[in-house]
Design a protein that fits this description.
The protein is α/β, with parallel strands linked by helices. Helix content is about 30%, strand content about 15%. Helix 6 (about 165-175) runs parallel beside helix 8 (about 200-205). The chain is globular and about 55 Å long. It binds iron/sulfur cluster.
């Protein structure tokens, strides 16, 4: 089975044709994948391609990233912007949903484009970078909002910024007296681990405030080879690593897969934090797991793994009400 050990070099695979040429889809699937690509961004890094077992039609890594024509069918209840960012956006690039913290989305590009993404209508390689003036307005909003004690960088993926730009943003936010902690949400360490280089680590260290990095990963096999090295570089630099995952049919919807995932996180010094119920973005129904099943899966972890390694199973409330624990 592939383990991602060779560092994936080269440009990401961004078209149906590239996926077919890499052997990740069969020729008969190319037209369907191209139809999906006309609506939603595709990107599979060479590192992730190296993790995929193309001979396995149910490969849990491929399922997260390889487009499927089912994405073009919107099921009842699926909506754009399911987390309702827009009503909570005081200035472009900022989401202020909770009194004490706010999101900054400096760009909407990602190393990979997940087929279940809740922001799938807006993320992509071409859009969403805040202009200098927009970024300045967003940073000024943080400086002028004393209730905010945590700045959370998300997107898109903030680790797609150049280290110089990331450093400048973090240093500016870190210098705000009322901001006590900084958090960065990212898929880069497991999707494009070579980006976690000395300059990026220095950008985090230069923030002047505690930095938490929430690593998005959904399967134990994402913690392999260069990804482990990238996470070790972050942990060794004093960055606190948190794990966040999405409960996904066919990826991690069994007791064994979830236990393997949290154990892989622990070995990489990543503390399991949230397991998200799937947000109902358009075309993601094939990943849906009923809440009762999710609750049972998480409860099944108790007694098998350390208590602090049991993630909290949460769902975003419709209309932007924020995260709430899912109960039986
Ligand atoms: S990395 Fe995050 S924001 Fe980007 S496509 Fe995946 S889930 Fe969406």
């Amino acid at each position: 089975m592939p383990d991602g050990t060779p560092t994936g070099q080269g440009r990401p695979l961004r078209t149906a044709r590239a996926l077919r040429q890499a052997g990740l889809i069969v020729p008969e699937a190319e037209a369907g994948a191209a139809a999906v690509a006309a609506r939603y961004a595709i990107s599979v890094t060479r590192h992730v391609a190296g993790l995929i077992d193309a001979a396995d039609p149910a490969d849990p890594i491929a399922r997260q990233y390889i487009p499927d024509p089912a994405e073009l069918v919107t099921a009842p209840g699926e909506i754009e912007d399911p987390t309702a960012d827009q009503p909570f956006t005081p200035v472009k690039g900022v989401v202020h949903r909770y009194p004490d913290r706010a999101l900054l989305k400096p760009l909407l590009a990602c190393p990979v484009y997940c087929r279940f993404c809740f922001r799938r209508e807006v993320v992509g390689p071409d859009g969403g970078v805040l202009s200098e003036a927009e970024l300045e307005a967003a940073l000024a909003w943080f400086e002028g909002t004393p209730a905010v004690r945590e700045a959370v960088l998300t997107g898109g993926d903030p680790f797609m910024l150049s280290a110089r730009r990331l450093r400048a943003i973090l240093a500016r936010l870190g210098a705000v007296p009322h901001i006590e902690t900084l958090r960065v949400h990212t898929r880069v360490p497991v999707a494009d681990p070579g980006r976690v280089d000395a300059a990026l680590v220095e950008a985090l260290r230069g923030a002047g405030k505690p930095v938490f990095v929430a690593v998005h990963a959904n399967h134990a096999r994402e913690f392999a080879g260069p990804a482990l090295d990238a996470l070790a570089r972050l942990a060794d630099a004093g960055v606190v690593l948190l794990g966040q995952s999405v409960l996904l049919r066919g990826v991690n919807d069994s007791g064994g897969a979830l236990e393997d995932l949290v154990r892989a996180m622990l070995r990489a010094r990543v503390r399991p934090y949230y397991l998200h119920a799937l947000d109902p973005a358009p075309g993601v129904a094939r990943f849906s797991v009923p809440d009762a099943e999710g609750v049972a899966l998480v409860e099944g972890l108790r007694g098998k793994v350390p208590g602090f390694a049991v993630p909290v199973f949460v769902r975003e409330s419709p209309g932007g009400g924020g995260k709430k624990p899912v109960r039986a």
